[in-house]
Specification:
single chain; alpha/beta
Length: about 130
């Protein structure tokens, strides 16, 4: 699969490494080249400095051939904007977006954006841990 990831933080870097190891074609974008230190030393994918809300940066990352786009920055607004661009401008078949704010995540899900809220997921995990 061809995958484009926006954001090389802890999650983006880890996901890029896992997908690369599994043989997927991975391109990861971040606005800060220092973030690429999180990629494993044997990463075979492409790491590009750029802003994934910029269509030219997305094209350099291979968005036009991507099967999946992940929006994984710390900013909910940037993630949603990039997800919308990937879905509606480049017609990426699957777009997955991290949204910290549970209210926003619910709203974006109802608009058809496949989104996950780490806030909700972790709160649920803690509740289950308490109850076990």
């Amino acid at each position: 699969m061809k995958v484009v990831i926006m954001g090389c933080g802890r999650v983006g870097g880890r996901l890029a490494g896992l997908l690369d190891k599994d043989g997927h074609q991975v391109a990861i974008l971040d606005t800060d080249s220092y973030s690429f230190r999180r990629l494993p030393p044997d990463f075979k994918g492409t790491a590009l400095v750029g802003n994934a809300i910029d269509e030219e940066a997305l094209k350099r990352a291979g968005i036009t051939e991507a099967d999946v786009f992940f929006a994984l920055t710390q900013g909910d607004n940037r993630n949603v904007l990039a997800a919308q661009i990937a879905r509606h401008v480049f017609h990426v078949p699957r777009v997955i977006c991290r949204i910290y704010d549970p209210l926003r995540q619910e709203m974006y899900s109802s608009l058809g954006i496949e989104s996950l809220s780490p806030t909700l997921i972790f709160a649920q995990m803690l509740k289950e841990k308490l109850e076990s």
